[in-house]
Automatic annotation (TrEMBL):
Domain of life: Bacteria
One GO term describing the cellular component: plasma membrane
Compartments where located: Cell membrane
UniProt keywords, alphabetically: ATP-binding, Cell membrane, Membrane, Nucleotide-binding, Repeat, Translocase, Transport
Pfam families xrefs: ABC_tran
Natural source organism: Proteiniclasticum ruminis
PANTHER family associated with the record: CARBOHYDRATE TRANSPORT ATP-BINDING PROTEIN MG119-RELATED, GUANOSINE IMPORT ATP-BINDING PROTEIN NUPO
Protein name: Nucleoside ABC transporter ATP-binding protein
Length: 515
């Protein structure tokens, strides 16, 4: 008999129109890192939400240390030593780091909050596990990587021994990912047990002992990672062979689509400018990638380009038309499609239906409205077409509330809307964040197809493999400036890394603007 700390037996969880978990059994050993792998919408997060008490299963049982337990809510889970870092963090943005960590388990004496005692414990934990944070920093003012550290410290503060990580690396830089994987290994060596939801096969190979694969809500199998290849794992996940290389012909750039000259964007967090005097061109028929470590001005630049933020200097033109002072809608109508970095803040209205979200950029056009009234039949037909074309999975099709969909399928919905909309330039920021290998393969094909149809593509990515494989030209951004222009065919990941870290700089020539 194996020494399992957690056993989930024959778990079935249903939502309207979909069986999210169909008779799934998962066993977690004490002191192991156990990966949970599956496509977007395979039921991974749902299964972990059942274990954490956010959902109740219709069938099945959960055992802790061989005894059946009932987990009605997250407080029950915490009492059993189970903690969870969610894909979309559960933090109060206007609270401090310390306030978020102790929320719900506030130390008090006679009804008075004992913050000093809590602070001491948080500082000790952060130092012990290499999770340096400022306890007094406000959540909305710290980076995503720091916010994730806060989520991890919440679990450690509650002395959880079973740690669930739901897509923990989806929003991290490569350096932060490596740090997190080391922290997870350290937890396992200490005797904690980890359930690790991810789409990234490299991470599973790097850190996991065993891997359980789900597909469309069903259990496919559990394997020892050391005895399994990435190709075998991906085939278990999607049911077919996956190509890990991006197939594309050499680019044939034509006329300039986007022209950016001397763009400067002020920073919201310090006195210096976030973007400093940036100039470059994107031509029709090429994919230009803006690469860099997170926080070096890419987000602010894209916000200025798409109209979300004001520039303090410079000009932006599309096909020769000056858009510098244009509104977001004017830029959209002029031909800019935008896959945003944060799908919840800028990509979707979470309480709208899928079909409503798919026409957000076009609802005023004659195709979808007449005399101010929406044409619901046209809307439904259009949504069904995109859902089929882009394989967007949801419980109730076009009428599904977007909030209830998996993160990956939310991303697919945005990509479907932006690629299908008439455009001359596609601005794709982290387009494959949180997607499985099958979906990544498909999205990369869509980017290449967009290029081959004579459109310009500006890709912003933190994934070095994606930067190298998808782009035709790489512009490296460091501290708000373009410090290098590289040809992916004639450079290495190591050289790219040196530019991204600021250790190497080009004198970017005037001629390079046009490619």
């Amino acid at each position: 008999m194996e020494n399992y700390i957690i056993e989930m037996k024959n778990i079935t969880k249903e939502f309207p129109g979909i069986i999210a978990n169909d008779n799934i059994t998962l066993n977690l050993k004490r002191g192991e890192v156990h990966a949970l792998l599956g496509e977007n919408g395979a039921g991974k997060s749902t299964l972990m939400s059942v274990l954490f008490g956010l959902y109740q299963a219709e069938k099945g049982e959960i055992l802790k240390d061989g005894k059946v337990v009932k987990i009605n809510n997250p407080n029950d889970a915490n009492a059993l030593g189970i903690g969870m870092v969610h894909q979309h963090f559960k933090l109060v943005e206007i609270f401090t780091v310390l306030e978020n960590i102790i929320l719900g388990v506030e130390p008090n004496k006679m009804g008075f909050l004992q913050k000093a005692e809590a602070r001491k414990k948080v500082v000790e934990l952060s130092e012990k596990y290499g999770l340096k944070v400022n306890p007094d920093a406000v959540i909305e003012k710290i980076s995503v990587g720091m916010q994730q550290r806060v989520e991890i410290l919440k679990m450690l503060y509650r002395e959880n021994e079973i740690l669930i990580f739901d897509e923990p690396t989806a929003v991290l830089t490569p350096q932060e990912i490596e740090e997190l994987l080391q922290i997870m290994r350290g937890f396992a060596e200490e005797g904690k047990s980890i359930l690790f939801i991810t789409h990234k096969l490299n991470e599973i190979k790097a850190v996991a002992d065993r891997c359980t694969v789900l597909r469309k809500g069903k259990y496919i199998g559990t394997v020892d990672v050391k005895d399994t290849t990435k190709e075998e794992l991906s085939k278990m996940m999607v049911g077919r062979d996956i190509s890990f290389s991006v197939e594309k012909t050499p680019a044939e750039p034509k006329d300039v689509v986007l022209s950016v000259r001397n763009v400067t964007v002020p920073s919201k967090t310090h006195k210096n400018n976030a973007v400093k005097n940036v100039s470059f061109d994107v031509r029709a028929g090429e994919i230009v990638c803006l690469a860099g470590i997170d926080g070096n001005g890419q987000t602010e630049f894209v916000s200025a380009l798409t109209g979300l933020e004001k520039m303090s200097g410079g000009t932006i033109s599309l096909l020769g038309k000056d858009l510098t002072k244009s509104s977001i809608r004017e830029r959209s109508v002029a031909g800019i499609s935008h896959i945003p970095e944060d799908r919840h803040k800028h990509g979707l209205v979470l309480d709208y239906s899928l079909e409503e979200n798919l026409i957000l950029q076009r609802y005023w056009q004659p195709e979808f409205q007449k005399n101010g009234f929406l044409k619901f039949d046209a809307m439904r037909k259009y949504a069904e077409t995109l859902i089929s074309r882009f394989d967007v999975r949801s419980g109730q099709g076009p009428v599904t509330q977007v909030r209830s969909m998996s993160g990956g399928n939310q991303q697919k919905a945005i990509i479907a809307r932006e690629i299908d909309k008439k455009h001359e330039l596609l601005v794709a920021v982290q387009p494959t964040r949180g997607l499985d290998v099958g979906a990544i393969e498909y999205i990369h094909k869509q980017l290449v197809e967009t290029r081959d149809k004579g459109k310009g593509v500006l890709l912003v990515s933190l994934e070095l493999d994606e930067v190298m494989d998808v782009s035709d030209r790489i512009l490296v951004m460091y501290e708000g400036e373009i410090v290098g222009e590289l040809d992916p065919k004639n450079t290495t990941v190591e050289e790219l890394g040196l530019y991204m870290s600021g250790a190497k700089r080009d004198t970017v020539k005037e001629t390079s603007y046009a490619g």
